[in-house]
Amino acid sequence: MLRGADIVLRCLRAEGVDMVFGYPGGAIMPLYDALEGSGIRHILSRHEQGAVFAAEGYARSTGKTGVAIATSGPGATNLVTGIADAKMDSVPLVCITGQVRSILIGSDAFQETDVFGMTLPLTKWSRLATSIEEIPDIIAQAFYWAQAGRPGPVLLDFPVDLLKAKMEFKGPSAFSVPATSNGHAKPDFWPKLQTLLQGAKKPFVLVGAGAKLSGACEALTELLDTLQIPACATVHGLGAVPSQKPYYTGMVGMHGTKASNMALHETDLLLVFGARLDDRVTGEPSRFAPDAKIVHFEIDPAQLDRVRPCQLPIVGNLKQTVPQFHNEVRSVKLPDWSEWRAVACGPDRAEIDSTGLSQPATRFLDALFEQLPDNSFVITDVGQHQMWAAQRYRKNSPRGFITSGGLGAMGFGLPAAIGVQLANPDACVVCISGDGGFQMNLQELATVHRLKLPVKMVIIDNKYLGMVRQWQQLFYERNYAETDMSDNPDFVAISKAYGIHAALLGVDAVAGTVAPPSTAKSLFRFLQSPEPELLVFECPKEANVYPMVPAGAALSEMVFEEE
Amino acid sequence: MTHLFRIRYNNTQGTLMRILMAASRRGLPMPYVQAMPFDGAHEARLLLDVSDKQVAQLYRDWHGTVDVLAVSSMQAAEEGWDAAIEAGAHMPPASTRVDAQSRSAIA
Questions:
Q1: A135-153 average pLDDT score
Q2: CB–CB of A412/A437 below 8 Å?
Q3: Cα angle vertex A378, ends A377, A379, to 5°?
Q4: Which ipTM was obtained for this model?
Q5: Which position has the higher pLDDT, A535 or A518?
Q6: What are phi and psi of A295, to 5 degrees?
């Protein structure tokens, strides 16, 4: 006879789980009581939001399903932001929450919240367990749905009495549904696509997260090498296409490169691979790619036609559809797009304008990224530093750039970096945060210290809620309402209080267009240290991220500097 | 234009709520909602005042929901609501290109 808690953990092990992230409490206590000897390593965070972001970092960097555990009530509600983040960015996540005793559900008992109800809009699938007998089945289903099709979060809510109850355990369950599709596109896609390609004069490719999630980056790069069509990436597509490719124009969207934004605006045939065309990418939707026919390779039909109808939806898994496309196109003579390529990828549309290059923050990040080893991950928080980092990231690692894109959740960076480091113990893991976002989950420094994780944490400190301040400067007549952070604490002292070495780097360290050798040396030592390290870079207070596509503007209406 | 939607689904925990949320998250009033066992599964019938684009969005949302089996709809003039609810067509709008293969999102 096993307790429900033991059965949960055995079923998690059967799903390949060897690490979970969580925070204990009353209703989930039986599960914690059963951890010893379960074969599952539990990582204690210092806030449930830290746990769920860490589980996300684990999942985002590996493709495996992350698991976060919390107690009922406030523990469960603290998971909600992370669940929303996983939904927006298609992260496979299983969240397990404790719940009050079954007979008390609905009575507003102590630490009772309807987490099942409040996460219904955010989860792919969820269950409030009602019997110990169903535990193996619902765990199997949870892991299936977390990964199936477009990955996403699921939630399992276990009343504490079920975790304490006992039954004869017959073994874990397996679950799958008959596939309605093998991931391949319908065979008739090629004639239509061929017609569109032959008629195109300015074709352009947009690569999104789906390329990475499907494991199709290599196949996609081979296809793009054949097509020789200019290509860009969303923030979640960074690293999917090698940045050295001559046809690659960089990141696209609100803070994308001039080359990408102009090409996307001018294209007459847009091939979209695994991107959902959200508003950060399209600019004003009614003025997005005004002359383009759209071919949309996508696994989730809910993402089709969101901005406007696409001429050719190709529903399937990029792992199958990209090779299908390549097999057809390699034997066909395509039009000569060299003139268009010269314009789209040419020097007149240089990747970042000179104003951007002159930013101390971008010079610092260039110097830092220059020293990144091949086996590295960059995780960012949310804000100006996020966009600067995305603009300067050049590594060709599909899962190497990790950020909260769709939700834009501040506080994501540090806990996510913890999850990434635990999942990739030999990798160099760098967390770039702003002074605002870092303070939202800085309690996780305790987790870093306890586990001696060699995470390299960088704070771009401009003493403002920078991105909001930028918008206030540009669109609200410099009314800097509630964005002043000039009374930030001493981050170096805080870090040392947590037992983590820290240092301060001033703007002088990156004077000139290229950082001096002394700075490069310091950054090398910082990255190579076997210990956790914090580096605070003091950035000019009113630095802005450029280019920028203002809200309501088309991608072609980028702003390059203050007027 | 008012549409009557018929959504067939397996009546598992939360599925009906997810079906209704596709409408509620868009701020769509729901003047008529009915859910009942039907033909071995369950069926939800919703009257919604929606644009063509919203119809297509709702179809895609519902087809992407675990345990939703099928979606159909018809336009319904106000005076004909009762008949429309009783009859309920099974023809998806022309603007929608969702078919069996496109349900790879959930399997």
A1: 96
A2: yes
A3: 115
A4: 0.86
A5: A535
A6: -110, 120
- pLDDT category of residue A352 using cuts at 50, 70 and 90: low
B10: contact with A, CB 8 A cutoff:
no
Exposed / middle / buried, residue A19 (Cβ in 10 Å: 0-12, 13-18, 19+): middle
* Residues in B touching A315 (Cβ below 8 Å): 101-102, 104
Find all residues with CB under 8 Å of A521, minimum gap 6, and list them. Answer: none
Q: Give the tens place of pLDDT for each residue, A488-517.
A: 999 999 999 999 999 999 888 887 666 678
What's the rounded Cα separation, in Å, for the pair A239 and A73? Answer: 39
* Ordered structural domains, chain B, with CATH: 2-100 (3.30.70.260)
- Closest-CA residue in chain B for A141? B66
Name the CA radius of gyration of chain A, rounded.
24
- How does pLDDT run across A289-347, given as a tens digit for each residue? 999 999 999 998 888 887 878 999 999 999 999 999 999 999 899 999 999 999 999 88
Cβ–Cβ under 8 Å, residues A376 and A397: yes
Chain A CA closest to residue B25: A121
Residue A351's closest CA among A546, A481, A165?
Answer: A546
Write down the pTM of the prediction.
Answer: 0.92
Report the interhelical angle of A413-423 vs A48-62 (nearest 10°): 50
Domains belonging to chain A, first-starting first, are 2-167 (3.40.50.970), 189-349 (3.40.50.1220), 354-538 (3.40.50.970)
Confidence at A353, pLDDT banded by 50, 70, 90: low
Chain B hits for A177, CB-CB cut-off 8 Å, are 106-107
- Name the amino acid, one letter, at A9: L
